[in-house]
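If you are new to this repository, start here. Below is one unmodified record pulled from the training split, so you can see the exact layout before writing a loader.
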Amino acid sequence: MIGYVAQEMDAPAHDTTTIRLRPRVPEPPQGRDRVRWWGPGLLWAMSAVGSGSILFTPRVGSEYGYELLWLLWGVALLMWVMIREAGRFAVLTGRTLLDGFSTLPGPRNWVLWFVFIPQLLAAVVGVGGLAALVGSALAGVLPGGIVLWSLLTLAASTATVVSGGYRAVSRAALVLALVLVAIAVVAAATVFPAVGDFGGGLVPGAPAEVDVPFVLPWIGTILAGSMGVIWYSYWAATRGYGGGAASLGEGEIDEEHPDEEVAPAGERGPRFDGWLRTMSNTALLGVLTGTLIITSFLVLGAELLGPEGIVPDGVEVATELTRLLSEVWGRTGFWLMTVAIVVALGGSVLANQDGWSRSFADITLLLPLEGHEEGGDDQAERDGPRLLRWMTSWRPESMGPRLALKILYALVIAGLLPAIVVVVVQDPVAIMSVSGIVATLHTPFIVFATLSLNRRLPEVGRPGPVVQGALGLAGLFYTVFAGFWFADLLGVIG
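And here is the target side for that same chain:
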């Protein structure tokens, strides 16, 4: 296995022992032009606010009011650190984060295998569970059962991911995010409590009697799970941050950088700084958007469900919220909350399908290669196993192998198989629980792998001690959380 020795800003083309920063860096966006680069953050926010926001946050608000608000915002802060550090490697090197993971010390590509195999299961049940949640919400207000609406949701989302690439998915996520923020915030503002009651929840403390098994699933679904951390780096690279990722292939990268904007080596440092600020601010936008939405659902739970003494199970959360908000706003409130729930869950289906299919395509092309081996996707397909060549044999000449694999995974792993799960199981909460177990195990692993990788970056792009410490703290937090989670599964706590 070839390891990284990050000592130089550049290295000869044949030297694979050094992390080499991208040789060409366009001018970073300035002023209001930065708004055009918000897509990755909003797409990430839509991937992060699905099931947890709908299923668990209102329940916690009903049971504990605002006593755990500080924990929600604290986890959101850690999530910002995690996703911005996941984006760092792609911005600086022009390679994907999983490409970087393939270079970590140990058996060949062991990190990729540890991510790939469990996440195949998590993708099938995760997308299936989210689609079933959308189906259950639509079936409650429209003719047709949960299976019909779940399958229609999967079909529409899969068609968008397969046919539109990053641009279509990003634009759809932008519209969904704006709609969801508007509805959730307006609904929460209608029932907002006294400022003192809300502000008291920002003081760290534990309720007098904490039901740990009740709270754990909520903590695990606050914003993105393990793969959500990786997905932000992909969406930032696909959008063209720092010049994009060279390995993404024709048809996927969404760069807008004319050649004359390329900087010589001596000017790259300031340009790297500009791109890292843009990436970091976009990550912050995503986290703030997701946190605003989740906080709104906490307010709705505390102010609507709490006074009624209602702590609903599973998808009954959606039913109770729409019923109670209709008592505040009448029929308008009923439909607004229904739309908010469908948008939140539907946006998560779309973003999760896109994120998982991108990641699986990348892993599939990396596995035949040595760590950071030169040659790229075409070499992996040409010299890789026969199965890989067969998987992309259907593509037209104009389509790169990575895009072909992404489409294949979107159709089968994130489309067909989740549809089968929905038809067979038809219980969204049971389906989602399997995906939650994988995410719980993987989050600390991915955080520490990212920390190890970024510490090998050349000094010009390496995170400082404070950032490294914050990322290590995030990994430690999720390690402790995983311990509590599995103790609960084993019945040690109750």
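Two things worth knowing about this chain: Residues 21 and 93 are 4 Å apart (CA to CA). Residues 1-17 have pLDDT under 50 and may be disordered.
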